[in-house]
Write a structure and sequence with these properties.
The protein is of the alpha/beta class. Helix content is 40%, strand content 16%. The chain has one domain: Rossmann fold (3-Layer(aba) Sandwich), CATH 3.40.50.
Length: 258
């Protein structure tokens, strides 16, 4: 008999988490503070056409796959949590046979898409995940952190899930200073969208789609780029102390980030 999503996920959910299981194919964890940034991201990824375009055009090139495989090795027979999984780009690109592949997102449309290719989905807030500590072999955040209100809090939540000896990988996330571009830097940032669109044969997002996905301000809890780096280094030292491997890749030059 095939197990239900509840049967698969429930053993990894904390006892006091408020999770609604009777929500179609997508269990839903209660989100107490649904912010403006979250609304903007859900608005974009709940659009079936835009989500499909993102799925087909982003994070699918060979350089992307090679870097992830080099950092991660094989995830076959492992428990993997993909935070901010979207419609499932990471698994669609890498393939393989994880023992369990949990996809976390706030977009129901994207989670439905991810479910059809093999994810076990749950709608939840990356800042306050409903999972127990130390159960995952690999936690992945691909092009997710820069969509979150508080990057350091999301990193801490991700690290909390990893078993001793496990692996946390973040990728395709610009530093805070990227949002402060001016002059030529800002011009180049803005014109990259039509260039990517032409290079992808019209599969990459239009300017309208891009603008919709970047409407909300990025607060990042008032953290400067220097203090943000210090927090990441602190998490890295803490992970090392607990025998957790921490890998952080910036692949903006080898692929397209969301």
């Amino acid at each position: 008999m095939q197990k239900s999503l509840g049967d698969v996920l429930e053993q990894y959910i904390v006892e006091d988490a408020y999770v609604i299981w009777q929500t179609g194919h997508i269990p839903t964890s209660f989100i107490a503070n649904f912010t403006t940034a979250m609304e903007a991201n859900r608005y974009y990824y709940d659009n079936p056409q835009w989500a499909k375009g993102y799925f087909e055009a982003c994070h699918r090139d060979e350089a992307f796959k090679g870097c992830w495989r080099a950092a991660m090795g094989s995830w076959d027979d492992k428990i993997v949590v993909d935070i901010g999984c979207g419609p499932g780009n990471l698994y669609a690109s890498l393939g393989g046979s994880p023992k369990l592949l949990i996809g976390v997102d706030i977009s129901r449309t994207s989670l439905e898409m991810a479910r059809t290719i093999g994810y076990t989905p749950i709608l939840a807030d990356a800042h306050n995940l409903p999972f127990i500590d130390g159960f995952a072999d690999i936690v992945a955040l691909n092009a997710s952190l820069h969509h979150c209100d508080n990057m350091s809090q999301v990193l801490a939540e991700a690290a909390r899930l990893i078993r001793p000896g496990g692996l946390l990988i973040t990728d395709h996330d610009p530093q805070l200073t990227a949002w402060n571009w001016k002059g030529l830097g800002m011009l180049l940032y803005k014109i990259r969208v039509p260039i990517y669109w032409l290079m992808s044969g019209g599969k990459f997002m239009s300017q309208e789609e891009h603008d919709a996905s970047h409407l909300a301000p990025r607060k990042i809890d008032g953290t400067s780029s220097l203090s943000m780096k210090a927090k990441v280094l602190y998490l890295a030292r803490k992970a090392k102390k607990n025998n957790v491997a921490l890998s952080h890749m910036f692949l903006v030059c080898t692929g397209l980030y969301g």
